[in-house]
Amino acid sequence: IVFSSYDAAGERYQLIDKIIDWIPVQSLNVQYFLAVDGLSAPLVFLTGLLGMVAVMASKGIRVRVREYFVWLLVLQTAVMGVFVALDFVLFFLFWELELVPMYFLISIWGSGRREYSAMKFLIFTFLGSAFMLVGMLALFFSTNTFDITQLPGVIETSNLVLPAWFICTLLFISFAVKLPVWPLHTWLPDAHTDAPTAVSVMLAGVLLKMGGYGM
Fold it and tell me: CA dist 103 to 4, 31, 184, Å?
């Protein structure tokens, strides 16, 4: 529905859901700001489609069935949130939320060295997120906004607290881990091999796209 509703000839950001005073601390300036653009609309469609495929591919689950599907739907929610969030804090929260269901889905319902693979995935992506957090806060202290739609314009006229190339490198490292780019890719073969089939579908189909989308 979101993909078919997007008008390529219309405004850049559409289907906007925005709460300005989402966190009632004026100095933080954090908004609940969701919308789609021409880049995120097809990714929302892909996430919905593969989420349905993943549910259908999970018919063989016999252990802790309800918990399994809860984590699968939380995973889909988090990935969808990354693609539609236009406030950097909200983007970061969805980015981090995705780690929790993936860890449990691999460690409980996976195969082989599932605990090892789940922990390796968690450590790699969590450390990558630390780089994003530093870059995000550097941008905020330089521009006083987390609004992704405003950042490109205000960055040009702001005195950055860190060099622009350094902030870019911090964000790039975080996204490169998720993509993943060599030599930050070693978590992926283990996670793919030991994850349940449905989770591998989500991992290959949409989770890796998060890194490219972030870049």
Answer: 33, 28, 18
Per-residue pLDDT reduced to its tens digit, 148-159: 988 888 888 888
Angle between helices 99-109 and 88-97 (to 10 degrees): 10
Look up the pTM and report it: 0.90
- Reduce the DSSP state of residue 34 to 3 states and report it: strand
Q: Are 200 and 171 in contact (CB under 8 A)?
A: no
What is the distance between the alpha carbons of residues 26 and 33, in angstroms, rounded to a whole number? 16
Q: What ranges in 98-203 are assigned the alpha helix state H?
A: 99-109, 114-143, 151-156, 164-178, 187-194, 197-202
Burial of 145 (0-12, 13-18, 19+ CB in 10 A): buried
Taking a C-beta distance cutoff of 8 angstroms, is the pair 135, 174 a contact? yes
- CA dist., res. 196 & res. 191, Å (int): 9
Task: Report how far residue 172's alpha carbon sits from residue 131's, in angstroms, rounded to the nearest whole number.
Answer: 9
190: closest CA among 112, 75, 104? 112
Three-state DSSP at 147 gives strand
Query: Which of 70, 98, 74, 94 lies closest to 82 in space, CA to CA?
Result: 94
**What one-letter code names the amino acid at 100?**
V
Phi then psi for residue 182, to 5 deg, are -60, 135
Residues composing the chain: 215
pLDDT tens for 76-98 read 999 999 999 999 999 999 999 99
